[in-house]
Design brief:
homodimer, 4 strands
Chain lengths: 111, 111
């Protein structure tokens, strides 16, 4: 059953790739919200981008999963200059800690 | 750099498997919080369980990622009778919608 709920990425059948980004934000905004929106808009323009799902709890923990057609698409996005600059600010300013995983989605099903 | 922050699962080096569970909760609790805690305790006891990361936003959207040693471990957990009963309640009572993906984690790195 499909849904129009924007919490769910509309994805093709597997296989495709997922980048699982688990984070703990620092206190305060420090330009984060503006940059997060900018980076999501930019990501959506990248070749091979399939979708994104992102949740942040009041305790500042968050999980963002972005979906990509291929590992090459993920690597190209990692090399993007604006994204590279944003990641550096993430490390120094916006995240207390983060973990990133690249995974190949093999099966998918929904409610 | 490792962290003691419980928002982050402590995982071995890849490869391992991830189950990405994206959800939208219904309004109200309806026994959800108690069952969610019970299922997490039960999951942690399963052979091949590696860790779990879970975030829910005030808008009721959520992402839970559980990590497993193998696809067999994921299948065995899916067949667990208590978990099967909980999933049925999830479909009928707790979730407006959900999507589930099984993925092989190939690379992982952190801050």
């Amino acid at each position: 059953m499909s849904t129009d709920d924007p919490a769910f990425a509309r994805l093709p059948d597997p296989p495709y790739y997922a980048v699982i980004f688990t984070t703990r934000r620092t206190e305060g905004d420090h330009g984060y919200a503006e940059m997060a929106e900018k980076m999501e808009i930019l990501a959506r323009e990248q070749p091979g981008f399939l979708g994104i799902e992102s949740v942040r709890a009041p305790d500042k923990s968050g999980i963002t999963v972005s979906y990509w057609e291929s590992e090459d698409a993920i690597r190209a996005w990692k090399r993007n200059a604006e994204h590279t600059a944003a990641r550096e600010l993430g490390r120094t300013r916006w995240y207390e800690h983060y973990e990133l995983k690249v995974a190949k989605v093999e099966r998918a099903y929904g409610m």
